[in-house]
Amino acid sequence: MTRKTISPGKNDFSFLLELKNVTVVRCGKKILDSVSLSIEQGEHVAIIGPNGSGKSSLIKTFTKEYHPLTAADGLVLKIMGNDTWNVFELRKLLGIVSGDLQQTYCRQTKVLDVVLSGFFSSIGIYYNHKVTPEMETRAREILEFLEISHLENRLMCELSTGETRRALIGRALVHDPQALILDEPTNSLDLKALYSFRESVRKIAGSGKSVILVTHTLEDIIPEINRVILIKEGKVFRDGKKEEIFTDDNLSELFSLPVEVLEKRGYYQALV
Asked: What's 34's domain CATH number?
């Protein structure tokens, strides 16, 4: 099994994210337990686990929403080689799309304004935001890249679930982050929307940005993702190449039931 570990002799800046012995406690419960892993710049990774396993908590730790306990050796969390970040600066490095964000945006906001709001890490555009022509140009470039330019003036409340997800990806990409983090991105998507969503994510992966996908569903994982981290009960259960990790035994133990793993044209499926 291949495992990504933190190498003291390697240049810190080759890593996008590093954790060593990270423990997070919420409401008296240990939700991450001595987690150590690193993700390199440009690397595409899937983080998979059952509901409640700690995978979303891991992402919230990356984005400073959750604060880990101090590790005995002093190294807790580094992003781009730094262990201290202003939260607003951090949001420019990591573009995030989550279900919580989608619920927040179920309102009468134009798609173009949603994408522009990524420059300000806000929910919508407000009177104190100075939107420059350069920002508008960049926002429209992102809409074109995601093939949703025709939605520019539509309201978010009028969009399908799949269209909403792609608009939020545009918001996450507009400030040119180092990585796109997708937390359970395909919930409630029908087959056509799922296909369009995957194709958008594949384009982003091909553009040189890291894609970090958090999911409990193997079908979400695009062929460009070649590393998988399995999370169980707040710990890293397995970490390695996709082909090595996606075995019947590993997935059966992860989900605590018999699982058969199938692969077709670079996509995987779990049968129970």
From this structure: 3.40.50.300
